[in-house]
Amino acid sequence: MKILFDRPVIPGLGKKYVAIDGKFIVTVTDDRPEGEFDRVICCNNRLLMPGLYNCHTHAAMTLFRGYGEELPLHRWLQERIFPAEERLTNRAVYAASMLAAAEMIGSGIVSFTDMYNFNEETVSAVLETGMKANISRAVLSFDPGADPAKDERVLEGIRLFECCHGLGDGRVRIDMSLHAEYTNQRSYCEYIAHYAKANGAGIHIHLSETEAEHKEGIERRGMTPAEFFADTGVFDVPVTAAHCVWISDSDMALMAKKGVTVAHNPASNLKLGSGIMPLEKVLAAGVNVTLGTDGTASNNRLDILREMYLAAILHKGVNRRADCIAAGEIIKMATVNGAKSQGRADCGRIEAGCRADIILLDLDTVSNIPMYEPEYTVLFSASSADVRMTMADGKVLYENGEYTTLDIEHIKHELRYVCEHYFD
Amino acid sequence: MKILFDRPVIPGLGKKYVAIDGKFIVTVTDDRPEGEFDRVICCNNRLLMPGLYNCHTHAAMTLFRGYGEELPLHRWLQERIFPAEERLTNRAVYAASMLAAAEMIGSGIVSFTDMYNFNEETVSAVLETGMKANISRAVLSFDPGADPAKDERVLEGIRLFECCHGLGDGRVRIDMSLHAEYTNQRSYCEYIAHYAKANGAGIHIHLSETEAEHKEGIERRGMTPAEFFADTGVFDVPVTAAHCVWISDSDMALMAKKGVTVAHNPASNLKLGSGIMPLEKVLAAGVNVTLGTDGTASNNRLDILREMYLAAILHKGVNRRADCIAAGEIIKMATVNGAKSQGRADCGRIEAGCRADIILLDLDTVSNIPMYEPEYTVLFSASSADVRMTMADGKVLYENGEYTTLDIEHIKHELRYVCEHYFD
After folding, report:
1. Chain A residue with minimal CA distance to B298?
2. Residue B348, Ramachandran bin (φ over 0: left; ψ between -120 and 50: alpha; else beta)
3. Cβ–Cβ under 8 Å, residues B123 and B162
4. Distances (CA, A) of B144 to B74, B192, B234
């Protein structure tokens, strides 16, 4: 299908024609491109930008949105989340993954990086809805004598990689995962690192989310959690490290050198009382930084525009400089940096030859006018309610409030049923 | 008109019938009240709560949304805002006030506390749209020899009070205003305090927004800005003090004793790099705290639900405790505390005898399900896009995306025209 976007405003590029053919952007031009189009989309009062990346989440945790509020991370996990997760089923995870996909698509997210359980259900949700995702089976290992090669979670992760990596013309990618330093044995880290390296997989981890975790890691290992992951070979493959609130300056340098991506989760880190990731320093160290929502249980939205706004204003406030971290940098974090972290070299940009992962925002809302500079409108006044179209690989997934690949009323009903029967 | 809200979820109260007659709530009951109603509103999947208060703004600054970004407060004011404000006209302020009213009504705000210029235009916007507001003429005085009794700004403020205070059955209230300590002479503060006390007016000020302002105030006066306002009699009347990022512990105690309201503006304070107001300490000191957006030039929304979310997560993060400041406290700041600060004793609560200032939020959205506790849904997942009705004094101002008291397309057109002709 050939589609022409008729002169939307594109941040950093101004007003252009954007033509797509099948799954790809073919031209971005000042003049109307030659040829016939199956559809021409009038983009008067529309802003066009790359689809957004949610680079750290647990999609199925929509089940636990608002469940166990106002508890610190450790108690929230131990007293509420872990016991509830014992009761998970395939049906619950599928329902919750579909709701998460709907929420993300409707707020302009085209791809997410997920760590959870019952992952084949999340894979199904991604394939059905037309989204993209890097999905991984969370591995936790508490028995120092256990053999990772015989661990059911590790084996599930490997089976997932073997069955699902690359499905949907690459829309689904499978990563390996280690939940965190404090929840894993060295042998498991080495085993997963070795498997990932041998098979070309990435690894998704939590890193230095809380001060206690970071300090206890140093006591336990004689090195920081980042140094531990480097030491066990984990950082020798593409890694997405979520949170990194408490990483040291030398951790930052190490991670920049190793090409580790930091997924910044400002809302979750604030809400759980974990602290504030030193974004300006991490960017200055040359680290690839992306944005994540974390699960809805600690956010409680899957809304990267909200994270962009938060990241934009939070670090200005904490560093007490209104010019701290330019708007364009935040937009990169939410788009091209995310694509890079997921191993999607042809995504995250509005350029000929790139995948047609595109969103349209409405500039004609009461809260988006006037517009002096599109970057600032995106960052400071736009919200997910302004998303008018979400397209992935050239396919429209959402347009003017309507989903094209999912039955939203059915999804909401199913999610409520599951929550009432399993978790109330 | 008699209206019955049929069993919405009300935070803190559960599911109730809420009946209104004319401008007032008459019953809040478990059982369906007797009698005939002109309208019964089915509130299945609806959350009902008091209309929100925006207790510090400059409504007409919608003109400057996104204008002069990434500058620190002092340069932003001196290089961008003050020169642009020299070019203000009645037409521009009216257009901008109408856009602001539309944005606020659409996001569930029923009343705002405003400090600006050409105030009669903002008064008109409030009267026409059905909102409520406390409006004041900003007074700045830089000439130590000037006589406040002959100052045009002071006289404008007094004329405004005499002409407009109490209009619209009390919907419009007029406050006096002193822009700030650093922008005023002692004689002006004393004069305004005296006038306000003699005439039963409140006073709206900016207080200790930046560290420089606070420290220079101490050097200039030999006392903190709060102590200066107390010393000049300003704190002897009801005062709303915006920002208070840098107030001292003894300032907090003083303000609690004097009954001064603090308007907390988390977004603006972060975005301008001013810092983070110590909310937990201010609440513990017993101060009445409300929320404000500040002008859109430094926010860039007029969205109290967004400020509520920010306030809720920011202080948990900064104080590193997930249980820092209960959800109910934030909801009070946005409702009943705001009504109190504006001298509206019969507003801000869902109770028989109170004014029918009511909003309905949609609980059946992809991002609001599941709901375990309504307070957390309001605070952490709801957004202004979920507002389905805004009612003030029993009159529906907005319902399901439609405004009943204003022509939104005309307002948007007029605002764009004004911006293009005056400020580009």
Report:
1. A380
2. left
3. no
4. 22, 15, 18
For chain A, report the end-to-end CA distance as a whole number of angstroms: 46
CA distance A264 to B230: 44
The three-class DSSP label of residue B365 is coil
Distance CA B269, CA A198 (A): 50
CA–CA separation, A3 and A16 (whole Å): 14
**Chain A residues closer than 8 Å to B270 by CB:** 313-314, 316-318
Residues B281-327 pLDDT 10s: 999 999 999 999 999 989 999 999 999 999 999 999 999 999 999 99
Is B419 in the A-facing interface, judged by CB distances under 8 Å?
yes
Largest CA distance in chain B: 67
Mutate to test the interface with A, among B320, B362, B414, B421 (most CBs of A within 10 A): B320
* Contact pairs from chain A to chain B, CB under 8 Å: 192
Sheet architecture: strand order including A14-15: A14-15, A9-10, A46-50, A358-362, A387-392, A395-399, A402-403
- Asked if B322 lies within 8 A of A72 by C-beta distance, the reply is yes
With contacts defined as CB-CB under 8 Å, which chain A residues touch B324? 273
pLDDT of amino acid A106 = 98
Segment A297-352, tens digit of pLDDT: 899 999 999 999 999 999 999 999 999 999 999 999 999 999 999 999 999 999 99
Cα distance between residue B208 and residue B396, in whole Å = 38
Q: Report whether pLDDT(B424) > 70.
A: no
* Residue among A383, A398, A295, A245 at smallest CA distance from A61: A295
Ranges of each domain in chain B:
2-50+356-403, 52-341
- CATH code: domain B2-50+356-403 is 2.30.40.10
- Neighboring chain B residues of A275 at a CB cutoff of 8 Å: 317, 320
Angstrom distance (rounded) from CA B101 to CA B127: 10
Whether the per-residue pLDDT at A424 is higher than 60: the answer is no
Which one is the CATH code of A2-50+347-403: 3.20.20.450, 2.30.40.10, 3.30.420.40, 2.60.40.1930?
2.30.40.10
Cβ contact A313–B66 (<8 Å): no
CB-based contact A367 B269, cutoff 8 Å: no
ipTM of the complex model: 0.97
B415 CA: distance to closest CA in chain A (Å)? 7
**CATH number for region B52-341:** 3.20.20.140
Q: Is residue A189 within 8 Å of residue A228, measured between CB atoms?
A: yes
Q: Mapping DSSP to helix (H, G, I), strand (E, B) and coil, where does residue A208 land?
A: coil
Q: What is the rounded CA–CA span in Å between residue B39 and residue B356?
A: 15
**CB contact at 8 A, B128 and B405:** yes
By percentage, how much of chain A surpasses pLDDT 90?
Answer: 93
What pLDDT does residue B74 have? Answer: 79
